[in-house]
Amino acid sequence: MVTFVYPLYFANTIVTNGRGDLYWSIAMSSSMLIVALLGPALGSIADETRSKKKFLFVFTVVPILCTAGAAFLQPGMIFAGMLLFILANAGYEGGTVFYDAFIPEISPPESTGRVSGFGFAAGYVGSLATIFATKDLLISGNISASFLVTAGIFTIFAIPLFVFVPEQKKRSTLSPWSLIKGGFRQVIQTIKHIRKYRSLSIFLLAFFLYNDAVLTVVAFSGLYAKNTLHFEIGDLIKMFAMVQTVAIIGSIAFGYVTDKFGPKRTIIITLFIWIGVVVGAFLTSTVTEFYFVAGVAGLALGSSQSASRSMMALLTPVEHTAEFFGFYDGFCGKASAVIGPLVFGALSTGFGQRPAIVSLAAFFIVGLVMMRRVTPTTAPV
Q1: How far is CA 67 from CA 130, 303, 349, in A?
Q2: What secondary structure letter does DSSP report for 169?
Q3: Within a 13 Å sphere around the CA of 190, how many CA atoms are in the beta-carbon half?
Q4: What is the pLDDT of residues 228-276, one digit of tens each?
Q5: pLDDT of residue 43
Q6: Which among 263, 256, 277, 282 is positioned nearest to 351, based on CA atoms?
Q7: Are 153 and 90 contacting, i.e. CB atoms less than 8 angstroms apart?
Q8: Residue 188: is it exposed, middle or buried by C-beta count within 10 angstroms (0-12/13-18/19+)?
């Protein structure tokens, strides 16, 4: 929905005034800003509450209903289309906080990495499954029905967690308001702690920049392929299926690269790849050429994320593991999806999609320069 179907439908069908990229960028950035602002409170609730399933149920129902609701949009309903996406994406991304909080409860410490990895892989497989389940509807132009099918798939595969996964009951004596305030106080405290570790601070700034560009590429790749390179729906389906498959392979392959050469070198390699991707997308003019560029992007997609997580683990002192990773995932990872889409949307509206896509190279280049200054150490300044 986020990378392929909805942006095309919203920008090209619902928006009728030629400003689809701009409105899409505002919707994407707004949804991630909401999650970034709510992240500290959600993390605190996930850590302390005995009702994770109740909160997760709400954050699951909202995107399901909003996805189904998109089936009833009509051309010109721009505000409704933006609102449905903002609620759906904020609900989904916010729900991942509670999903993640279940990992320590269902996995022993020595298997947490594998369980997390299988979770990411399952997400890619789910994307492929949904693409194939809706491809005939998409090719025939029945986009509205694809929203209903996707909402149905989401519902079916969410049910097992609520039925079969046990939840450890914590007897928290804190009120919900106290948990929310505690979450925001923790963010301020975490920032103070992180500032004591120079390399970690530099890495998080670098990650913020290059991850912003990665998420922008993900958000606008379908629109770029359709509106600039004039892909047919069938070509788009093949491309995204290929990207998902390559991303799985890249995640596994670069896992070995990370083990052999270290996460810093691996991230630097992937950033060079990403720079090549956006420059290649700017220069390409045919479907075949963009297939190649998209394949390279898929190779870097999973690998840059997994290597970044390894780098974070390497730079984080043991005594701050939960605190710093909560900030990395819950705040930094979400907030980094706010600026890039707005930059792309504004440039695309004013100058076209090609200048907008190549402008993302600046995010990767600055991130690369900062990564070279990172020293793998957990020692404080």
Answers
A1: 13, 29, 26
A2: P
A3: 26
A4: 999 988 888 888 888 888 877 777 777 777 777 888 888 999 999 999 9
A5: 66
A6: 282
A7: no
A8: exposed
**pTM, 2 dp:** 0.83
C-alpha to C-alpha distance for 344 and 160, rounded to whole angstroms = 39
Which residues contact residue 73 at a Cβ distance below 8 angstroms, ignoring those fewer than 6 apart? Answer: 9, 14, 80, 81, 84, 144
Contact between 347 and 25 (Cβ < 8 Å): no
Q: Are 201 and 380 in contact (CB under 8 A)?
A: no
Radius of gyration of the chain (CA): 20
147: CB partners within 8 A, 6+ apart: 1, 5, 67, 68, 69, 70, 71
Q: Cβ(153)–Cβ(92) under 8 Å? A: no
Q: Distance (Å, rounded) from C-alpha 338 to C-alpha 28?
A: 7
Cβ–Cβ < 8 Å for 23, 85 = no
Residue in the structure block whose two tokens are 């909202």? 62
Q: Are 335 and 32 contacting, i.e. CB atoms less than 8 angstroms apart? A: yes
At residue 91 the predicted structure's pLDDT band, cuts being 50, 70 and 90, is: very high
Task: Residue 207: count other Cβ atoms within 10 Å of its Cβ.
Answer: 25
| Cα 373 from Cα 194, distance rounded (Å) | 16
Take residue 15 and report the two structure tokens written for it: 């928006």
